Amino acid sequence: PGFPCDRCPEVLPNLSGHANHLTKVLLADPAIYQDLRTASTSLGVSFAQVIKPGVDARVGASKEVQPAGVVAGDAESYRAFARVFEPCIQGYHGLSPTGMHPCALDPTVV
């Protein structure tokens, strides 16, 4: 039930009431949906499969920590669907695509 996983409908579904990073990205730039809705990776992972969790989940578990709303079906998904993955990952983790996660090896600061 819910959003199909084999193909995206022609029109972006109503995302009002959703609380995740994917829906923020798609509402800010609906052209992303139109540009990627028929795309898939070389292994057959569709854009519909990538965004299904975020479209199906109307509300996040917490207003402080919102889910990313996307899943990568294979490694190529990150490149093929970078227009949604990069801002979702940045929103969720607070890191830009070129950012480095801080490394704290001193146990007194952990």
TrEMBL record:
<dbReference type="GO" id="GO:0046314">
    <property type="term" value="P:phosphocreatine biosynthetic process"/>
</dbReference>
<dbReference type="InterPro" id="IPR036802">
    <property type="entry name" value="ATP-guanido_PTrfase_N_sf"/>
</dbReference>
<protein>
    <recommendedName>
        <fullName>Phosphagen kinase N-terminal domain-containing protein</fullName>
    </recommendedName>
</protein>
<dbReference type="GO" id="GO:0005615">
    <property type="term" value="C:extracellular space"/>
</dbReference>
<feature type="domain" description="Phosphagen kinase N-terminal">
    <location>
        <begin position="4"/>
        <end position="94"/>
    </location>
</feature>
<dbReference type="Pfam" id="PF02807">
    <property type="entry name" value="ATP-gua_PtransN"/>
</dbReference>
<dbReference type="GO" id="GO:0004111">
    <property type="term" value="F:creatine kinase activity"/>
</dbReference>
<dbReference type="InterPro" id="IPR000749">
    <property type="entry name" value="ATP-guanido_PTrfase"/>
</dbReference>
<dbReference type="InterPro" id="IPR022413">
    <property type="entry name" value="ATP-guanido_PTrfase_N"/>
</dbReference>
<comment type="similarity">
    <text>Belongs to the ATP:guanido phosphotransferase family.</text>
</comment>
